[in-house]
Amino acid sequence: MSTQQLGIFVRTQQDIKRDLKLQGHVSITAVRVSNGHLLAVIDDRTLLHQSLATNNKHVEIKIPVGPADAVANIFLSALGQHCIVTTKQGENFYVQVRSNSVFPLKKLKGVLSCVGWNPECIKETETGHILMGTTQGAIIETQISSNGVISFIKEHSSSFGGEKNLGVSNLYLYMINDDNIKATKWLMLVCQPGRLYSVYASVDMSPSPKSNYIGAANLQAGWISMPETPPYMFHSFFSTKDSQQTCMSMQSTASSQTLAGLSALLMHPPHGEPTRFLWLGPGGITIGKINVFADKPRDIVEEEDHLEHRRYEGRLERPVGVSLTEYHMLLAYPNRLNALSIYTKTVVFEDTWQPEFGNAVGLVSDPTSEFQWLFTSHVTMKYKPVDENRYVWRVFLERGDYAKALTIARSRLEIDPEAHELVLKRQAEKYISEKNFTAAAEILAQSTESFEAVVLKFMSAKDSKHLGLKTLLEKKLDGMLRPEDRLRREMLVIWLLEIQLAELAEARREGREQESADLATHLQRFLMRKNVHDSVVVNRDAVYNLMASHADFDSQLFLAKQIGGY
């Protein structure tokens, strides 16, 4: 299947300058999208705020940078409430997204490279405690109100990991356990070029006291001074005695040194507890599983596969942006977007665009939706997934992972019923080849294959197939609830009675007393089932005769007590 045929993403694009009728030069260098808000740096000192939820209403926000300075990057909170702007000379600003208000953060210096937003604070009035990484490797904690007031600034590390000038590309914070507010368990993930750190620490989240003084009735002085509680809370991450840390390194080659600064870490899902990660570094792309609840830091991140960067015209090809969905990793290159299956690592979708759109500058995802956003110097392209998992069931099927294949095929039952049938058939065939006829029967009972064709698979005198046939018939009987199923339901009841009476008679002849007792109990419970009872009442003469043919007078007596007429 060609990548064009697969069409798992559909692109729509917008020329920012032309479609929004912007005046002046437009050169997009950064884009962030979340919760219906698109923010883009469109020149050295202008931030475009486009409301995607209100017919693309937009505002140009002027950032008061110095004459020789320019905006370097922007960081948008997960719900699109707060934005932090950093400049090339290390000045920083806060933008309150709803009001488009800009506030200089004069105390905060340094070129920011990432923000680890606090997942436990979703207030519009403040950011809560957040961590920020810089291009020089520092990690800073702060808290900013919606009017731009900084509560405090605390530099926890001037060069995280010990190597100077090694920037921090990504920071993630997760609260793991809050049973004890004075010792809540947190996880911090720190990504640097070629390094991925996992750090566990206990964090005291007790509210700060409103006063540093308390009354002392037993002291004539009346007041005593209490030790001041520090305003920051994430310091334990940076203490060797209070934290557990592990570091995963990405192997690099001599040729990959040309990509020495390349670094990105993506999580999926972006909200809540992630289960999968994509790590981009100088040595390539690592993809794997993540378990934020692992007991030890070394068990948090599990590498599944690693892809080296491709060579193009003799040089390593550098992605300008990466993203991660449930089923695909997206790699943006200057002239195309590739989607690779996270299972097969093959390209299943490729999109190129008209040369006049320009080269891709970056790729970002909206954490509140399924949309991916690629941008050039003047065009934004939104990629919407369309039946993104359409081929994934087959990947699991070919791997023999029938449970996952069936889950995906069942979710697409209305779109592709043949896929569901094929998975059921292949799983049943596997069970039959293993002589597990009961399991095969349970699977085939879900199939829409003709009843006669399915029954033929179990028509044999062998005990194992006999049990499979009985299981199949019982599953089919359970599904016959409509009034128009009455005749087929009565037929199945008689058939199942014949099978069970034959089993019981054989066990009694061979003196298997315990098995006979179990089979008799099972038969009695079967006769008491509502759908069986109704069919037996209608066909009581045939049922009594069937029991008599097996000389099963105990069952006749039991049935007579239940329905009479004998």
From TrEMBL:
Protein's recorded name: Vacuolar protein sorting-associated protein 18 homolog
Top-level taxon: Eukaryota
UniProt GO MF annotations: protein-macromolecule adaptor activity; zinc ion binding
GO BP annotations listed: endosome organization; endosome to lysosome transport; lysosome organization; organelle fusion; vesicle docking involved in exocytosis
Source species of the chain: Heligmosomoides polygyrus (Parasitic roundworm)
Database matches in Pfam families: Pep3_Vps18
Cell location: Late endosome membrane
Gene Ontology cellular component annotations, sorted alphabetically: HOPS complex; late endosome membrane
Keyword presence, Ribonucleoprotein: no
Membrane disposition: Peripheral membrane protein
Keywords (A to Z) from UniProt: Metal-binding, Zinc, Zinc-finger
Chief subcellular location: membrane
Pep3/Vps18 beta-propeller domain ranges (all copies): 25-380
